[in-house]
Amino acid sequence: MRVYLPTSQRQELKSYRWDLRQTAHRVIKYQRSKMRHQRPGQSDWNEPLDTYNHLRISQTPGKKSHDIRKDLERHEDIKWERSTLIRVMSSVADSDPWIMKQLNKVRSCRATIRFDEEGLTPHIHSCSNRWCGRCARKANIERTRHLNKAIAGATIELPESRYNWTFTTLTIDDRTLGVSADDVVTKVKAIRREITRMLNQRFVKRHIKASLYKIENVWSKVTGRANVHVHILCVYDCPKCDYTSWVSSYWKLGRILDHKRFRYTGMGSVMELTKPIASYLNKSFSYQTDEQLLRLIYAFRSVRASGATGVFRRLIAEVKEAEKRERLATESVEPKQPPSQPSVVDMPFGTYDKTQLLYKILEGKQTAIWMLRWLEYYQSWSKSIGVKSGIDPGSTDGS
After folding, report:
1. Is 216 exposed, middle or buried (0-12, 13-18, 19+ CB in 10 A)?
2. Burial of 249 (0-12, 13-18, 19+ CB in 10 A)
3. Using one digit for the tens of pLDDT, what is the confidence trace for 277-306?
4. How much of the chain exceeds pLDDT 70, in percent?
5. Which of 17, 162, 245, 315 is most deeply packed, by most CB within 10 A?
6. Which of 175, 230, 176, 226 is nearest to 199 (CA)?
7. What per-residue string of b and e applies to 135-163 under the rule 16 or more CB within 10 Å gives b?
8. How far apart are CA 192 and CA 215, in angstroms?
9. What angle, 0 to 180 degrees and rounded to 10, lies between the N-to-C axes of helices 354-362 and 366-385?
10. 81 Rama sector, left if φ>0, alpha if ψ -120 to 50, beta otherwise
């Protein structure tokens, strides 16, 4: 039997439930934060961790030190993703010359340092492959930085008092295309073709002053469906109802999930906006199968997954040009002195990567700290002290 409460009591009950949910959310958030910052109880854990906190090459005021456990977890993830990518590409490299070319690039991607009698010799090479765990993260950070500056600048040039900012997610219906649920190749080509036609419409040229878009894919754990979708941010000078009706009348491939209005409240709001636009092509890299990864590689082959128009495109170009001028000015400056060698060498000669050096730092090896600092120093000043493939260890060996 359903009991209908008066309006006042019903509103009071809703308010009570809302307060209860908010209190539970704060408690869960506090518990997660407490568990995340908990340290193991070993007696020898703090010493190398505290030593590692002083490994910052950039002395930027207010910059936080990295937790060695998080760095190790990140590098282990990159190592696992790289091995998975090499295994998948190797399975078809003999029959596909393009895959063989990409495989050779991924295999050459590394950041290592050799320690021998002559000193230290770093070797750094980036493959710039969109599926490489190391290069994809680097490109994601760079793209996020560019978008943050461009969106922050656009809020001044296109203020919310005169223009509407709307973030929309567009999806694909398998029945509309007449394809299977896991046919990611056809879906990516269809959504790329449709978003290009959409941005060339007369309505866009007349009302939309700036736009950003990004094509992504998410594999379903249960059904294995390829959920290809596109995130798009539009800034326009017409009423929002006109914009939503235009999108609804034009987009026939699938559903339109939401029309969220963006309000600038600082760089935090910009970061929440650039997260889906500057993210990876495939969010579920950790649990996809080898066959699904291979399909994604072929699906996004020669496909432009992101883009910008109008004011956003101009501002991003200006941000890149400004960073290029800063980089050229930095290269003309004399490099800082390299890190000094420790008094006691407690590691054997050999070639090490960052993951191996981090494990050695956990063991309390002072030489590993010196080598890691030297590797970061070389990444910052490589244009000034030598070529990317290596340097003369006799002139700048860190001693």
Report:
1. buried
2. exposed
3. 766 555 545 568 888 889 989 998 888 888
4. 71
5. 315
6. 230
7. bbeebeeebbebbbbbbebbbeebeeeeb
8. 8
9. 150
10. alpha
In single-letter form, the type of residue at position 179 comes to V
Indicate the residue type of 116.
Answer: D
Q: Which residue has the tokens 């090490």?
A: 352
369: part of which helix (H) or strand (E)?
helix 366-385
- Among the ranges given (40-54, 74-88, 359-373, 383-397), the one the predictor scored with the smallest mean pLDDT: 40-54
3-state class of 382 per DSSP? helix
SS3 content of the chain, % helix, strand, coil (to 5): 50, 15, 35
Burial of 365 (0-12, 13-18, 19+ CB in 10 A): buried
Q: Look up tokens 């950003």; give the residue.
A: 212
Paired sense of beta strands 208-219 and 256-261, if any: unpaired
* Angle made by CA atoms 350, 353, 357, in degrees to the nearest 5: 85
Residue 244 phi, psi dihedral angles, 5° rounding: -65, -35
Read off the amino acid at residue 318.
Answer: E
- DSSP E strand boundaries for the chain: 110-116, 119-125, 164-171, 208-219, 226-236, 256-261, 306-309, 350-353
Amino acid type, 266: G
CA–CA distance, 212 with 216 (Å, rounded to integer): 13
Positive or negative, the CA dihedral 47, 375, 147, 303 is: negative
Q: Pairing mode, if any, of strands 164-171 and 110-116? A: unpaired
* pLDDT score recorded for residue 33: 52
Question: H or E segment at 198?
Answer: helix 184-199
Q: Which two tokens mark 67?
A: 């937790």
Contact 167, 260 (CB under 8 A): yes
Contact 236, 208 (CB under 8 A): yes
Considering only CA atoms, which of 104, 312, 108 is closest in space to residue 212? 312
The DSSP string of 271-327 is: HHHHHHHSS-SBS-TTT--HHHHHHHHHHTTT---EEEEHHHHHHHHHHHHHHHHHH
